[in-house]
Amino acid sequence: MTENEIANIVWDICFRIHKVLGPGLLESVYEEILTYELNKLDLSFERQKSIPVVWESLKLETGFRADFSIENKVIVELKSIGEINPVHQKQVLTYLKITGLKLGLLVNFNSSLLKDGFQRIANHL
């Protein structure tokens, strides 16, 4: 499965969740439902995956936690905030650089229209 195919699946799931529940819930609610939907599709994913950061000979076991790593190809970062700031986009790009993955999805469920809160972030894709 390609990064784009995974992104399309995540978009479809997030769109359905947003259409039914709308904005305004805690991020953890959306995360739990996305987990449920990904399990139904039998996709390989890790939730709250701890990603180490290496600096010279120092290895920090938990540099960050990815909300989702799907098929070891796509990182998904969920938000439920007023608006996405440039730092959130940079956060996902940094995750991609550290992991060597090529595609990240930044999803803000607190947007009136999900298309305004859904961003693809590429790392040499």
Helix-strand sequence: HHEEEHEE
Sketch the major β-sheet.
5 strands, mixed
- In terms of structural class, how would the helical and strand content be classed? alpha+beta
- CATH class annotation: Alpha Beta
Word description of this protein:
With 125 residues, the protein is α+β, with helices and mostly antiparallel strands. It has helices spanning 3-21, 27-40, 86-99, and strands spanning 45-55, 58-70, 74-79, 103-108, 118-122. The protein has a single domain, classed as 3-Layer(aba) Sandwich (Endonuclease, Chain A). Strands 1-2-3-4-5 form a five-stranded mixed beta sheet, with helices on both faces.
Please give a quick description of this structure.
The protein has helices at 3-21, 27-40, 86-99; strands at residues 45-55, 58-70, 74-79, 103-108, 118-122. With 125 residues, the chain is α+β, with helices and mostly antiparallel strands. It starts with a helix and ends with a strand.
